[in-house]
Amino acid sequence: MSEKAILEIDGKKYEFPIITGTENEKAIDIKALRGATGGITTIDPGYKNTGSCESAITFLNGGEEGILRYRGYSIEELADKADFLEVAYLLIFGELPTQSQLDKFHADIKANSHVDEDVKKILDGFPKSAHPMGVLSSLTSALIAFNPTSVNVDSEEDMYNAIVKIMGKFPVLVAWALRKRTGQPLDYGDDSLGYVDNILKMMFKKPNSEYVVDPIVSKALDKLLILHADHEQNCSTSTVRIVGSSHAGLFASLSAGICALWGPLHGGANQAVLEMLEGIKEDGGDTKKYMAKAKDKNDPFRLMGFGHRVYKNFDPRAKIIKVAADDVLNSLGVDDPILEIAKGLEKEALEDPYFVDRKLYPNVDFYSGIIYRAMGIPVEMFTVMFALGRLPGWIAQWKEMRENKEPIGRPRQVYTGENSRSFKEVSER
Ligand code: SDX
Questions:
Q1: For 106-130, what is the mean pLDDT?
Q2: Catalytic one among 131, 228, 231, 308?
Q3: Which region among 75-89, 111-125, 288-302 has the lowest average model confidence (pLDDT)?
Q4: Which of 271, 299, 359, 399 is the most buried (most CB within 10 A)?
Q5: Predicted pLDDT of residue 152
Q6: What is the DSSP-derived secondary structure letter of residue 58?
Q7: What is the mean pLDDT of residues 109-117?
Q8: Phi, psi angle pair for 200, to nearest 5°
Q9: Ligand 1 pocket residues where CB is under 6 Å
Q10: Residues 75, 222, 378, 191: is their CA dihedral positive or negative?
């Protein structure tokens, strides 16, 4: 017998089914609420208690153990044993690929990685000072004009082509956004390289010298991209799904998701963390002052890289990145005092009642920037690297929403404005 929730309003009882997911998460199905109650809805700013969909892609549990799985595989195993393209395939198509499936996916991506030369004219229109996330969102949307079939959301063939096109072109746009800022000529990669090695070459090859991929940097970037690849219904993924629910194309939905990720409370936090740590270093390493600011309700300062809507214990990705930060910096021979400041801040916060009581732990953004910086990636590109990792997750979630034929997203509200009133002539106001 299926479980039910009973709601009593003005002495009348209403029953609603309770659905249970494969990991025993339960939700009250209120699809019939407005109709049954004559128009009563729910309200939940920030959707802290509201599920937007049923999804088979990513499971995370914010409890004691802090679980994250992509299609049932643990983030720990995937970060340790898989590569980013394999994980992208897993998220998008639901299964780990056979070697031939992976080879075909990569070949299709390489065959579609050319970005029309006219896109460079759009890039030229930006000042060097433009934030790369704004450039990336604009160029992603511009790709629609050069790939008109990418909007045929009802064609399985056109959708597959749109997926391999954006998996191929997005890294080029990322590299061009960086090279625009550093005044480097725009470069293509090399089809003989692996997916991540190719990204590094496009980003860092100098015009007058060969580029040799550092295997330590390549493996670290591959791991970081895996750790960022999906995270169920976060702000930017929910944006991608709701834009796609109007039957807007994949590229338009991704462009919107990039803008949502840009915010400092979301993906922009990795840039904000480094700027915060730099500020603390400039301030003589006075972590206690910044801890006090973070706890002061009159101070808008937050400890960036701390806290999470779902994880109320360690973000499992933060644990993996913290270990990787030590390994990468040691392997590259980089001695970055910022890392020690971060570890000191973490230790203090984990012993401070304000953070302990609110279950605020380091999240994915707390240590990632330290590795990006050691790899030579400028701080304003950190959130772009997050978007590069999150791309397959956004694609997977958008594809699932389309395949599930979900209705257009259109939340309700409770109106609290003026009641009906008549127009006043300006002479009477
Ligand atoms: C990502 O959703 C995802 O999955 C996102 C993400 C993904 O992979 O897609 O995991 C990636 O975006 C990680 C989060 C990156 N953002 C930051 O690091 C910014 C700093 N953290 C926050 O602003 C905050 O913790 C959020 C936005 C992450 C979560 O906010 P919630 O769940 O809405 O919590 P809240 O704002 O209601 O805060 C609850 C309490 C408040 O204090 P009280 O009013 O109870 O006294 O905790 C406090 C907050 O003031 N608080 C913090 C804090 N985070 C929450 N206080 C100081 N520093 C912080 N970082």
A1: 96
A2: 308
A3: 288-302
A4: 271
A5: 85
A6: E
A7: 96
A8: -60, -40
A9: 46, 231, 234, 265-267, 269, 294, 302-309, 358, 360, 363-365
A10: negative
